[in-house]
Protein 1
Amino acid sequence: MAILLLALGLLGSELEHPSSVLLFWPAWLETGALALALTPIILTGGIDLSIGSTMALASVTLGQLWRHHDWPIGLAAVAAVLVGALAGAGNAVLVVAGVSSIIATLATLAFYAGLAMALSRGERIGGLPSEFTALSQDSVVISGGIGLPNQVWLLAAVFVVAYMFIHHTRFGRYLYAMGVNRTAARFAVLPVRRLEASIYIVCGAVAGLVAVFYTARSGAAIPHAGQGRELEAIACVVLGGTSVTGGYGGVVRTLIGVLVVAHLDIALQLVGSLAIQLPGMQSVWQPTAETRLVILGLMLVAVAIWNQRISADSGRAR
């Protein structure tokens, strides 16, 4: 993160206006909410790869209920959140039954994505009412005409709930215990299965809620909404310092990870601006969404290797 901040300091003059950076805010905040919901799962040593597909399914459900079944848009939005919770419940059933979380959620990733495509026939559902798309507008305007998007309140609400649950309840302590040694947690008669099911359901519900904001921001229900968001959310959690094997980390660390990913986006935007201005550079290299995912993947590999070395050093010290 220090390197990213240094790069921003050197290249910051290339930004024409702060609002060009703030264009990324809603996406960062939505990803941050997903990452916070994913943190309790990773603390137990689990994973949820289906949150992006859950977003797509929830978004399509919202659009279908409003367009083809004449549901009020508010009620359709509530249904989208419930669909997210049901998708999370599907993950919970598989994981509690003993299926590895990475296998279970990889399967549901494909299933939910396919279901979203089937329901929408691969088409966007646009024409959403203005009172709904207004959800994506700035709620608080600060100096210079720059505003804070409504996603700020989404992130704040998810953070407060997650922080209180993980750090101020006995169930939060159980999450860490499960991550350190699941077998010992069972022998200690901790409610492992119920707690595990709950965090997957809540994660799905948050994905559904994020889908509502994403749909309002996009102005349409999109069958590929959330594509790649699972990698971004996992990156935020892991880059923040939460151990992917469980037992160590927290939501404050996840917020740090969100800042790292956000600064990566800014840095790529600056590089893209420079490439446009330098003769011949635009044809040589221009940052794309795929570039961003590649860099995130490399960062995750680096963190995994670092964590492995730390674990090995700790083992030798014992």
Protein 2
Amino acid sequence: MLVSIACSGQKFKIYSDNQAGLYRLKTPSDHPGQAYQIRAIKAAEVIKAKGAEISLNWVPGHTSVEGNELADKLAKEATTIRPISNETSFGLLGMIVKECASDQWLDTLNQYELRSKPNPINLLEAISMENWLEIKLPSGTNRKYC
């Protein structure tokens, strides 16, 4: 939106109470949301190329800063709107791959638990002492010494 109205000499100040979001705009990353991050960075570059100035400013949240509560409300509403783009980022793809790998690992673990052998200690409880001695003592051993 600012890209279409920006002209030389204008100054745009963007305020946010989200320090992490402001930081991400200054330092590109490959985390989820990368496509939006790149889009915002490119828009800022176009605005600067037109000769306008743009600044990102942090304001404390929930401290009655004029307009901040309305901005929070609008941001929450925006999260319910379906995206108009089908673009994705490497960060989101990486997150999906990790989730699939984790699901496969858990499935494998659950299958192992279903077919695993009973605990040997429980088997010992099921064997009588007489049978246990027969198992442990070599044949021909006199039991009266045991």
Protein 3
Amino acid sequence: QLYRLNKLQENIYEQLTNHFDAEQWNKVDLSIDIRYHLLELFVKKKEIKLKDKQNKINPLEDVCLKQKFEIQRLKSEVESNLQ
């Protein structure tokens, strides 16, 4: 039963931290410690999402930078051919 209660608590925390809603958290009779814990969980989730997005962006930035240098190289080549 203790395992089930812990799983239920974990599930409730998961539901409450899907998005930050201070109004919802204030409506529910939660202790300050639990609110603090929920906010920590919410922040950790956001940090993970941010890190994932950054990991997706980094390769795209590399591609863009390579394309920029390739464009500059081609411009220089065209200019030199025109002269």
Protein 4
Amino acid sequence: MPAARRRLTALALLGAALSVAAPAPADPPPWAPAHGYRHKHHKEKVIAHEVPPGHRDVGIGRGTCRREVVGTILGGIVGGAVGSRIGKGDGRTAATIAGAIVGALIGREIGRAMDEADRYCTGQVLEQAPDGRTVKWRNPDTGAVHEVTPRRTVRGETGPCREFVTRTTIGGRTQETWGTACRQPDGSWRMVQR
């Protein structure tokens, strides 16, 4: 019977030990990289990072702007705008689709180097790229290389506002400009003073 008594004592001790075991935290601290549940379910929500319905993918998610696609889009928009002027349509729809920045985007020299396709690309970066993601493209007509990086997204009166930096390199000289643009109710982006 001593063996049975030992087994009974061992089981009682094991039961007591299991009943007082405290659960250990399984999540890493907030500053540590997460590879499990938190990684999949607690991601910070990013405003304006997907291609909106009705917009064509011009490569923003891949860090570039495909100007050949933009040319096709802008050609269709111009045709639609002309058609809406002739008919009874609303020309604001073209501005919504283009997502172009209204008003002076940046300094005069960079502004001269930016054509309609470059402005469209900039609007699409503001619409789709997550904060901190640089989107870069080259204008084959001017030779200018444009890089646009949204830095921070905040809520404005009319919708999201994005602080961004634009770097344009023309003839080996780079100019950097910071700005803030807010999405308007019609879908366009307008520069604001902050």
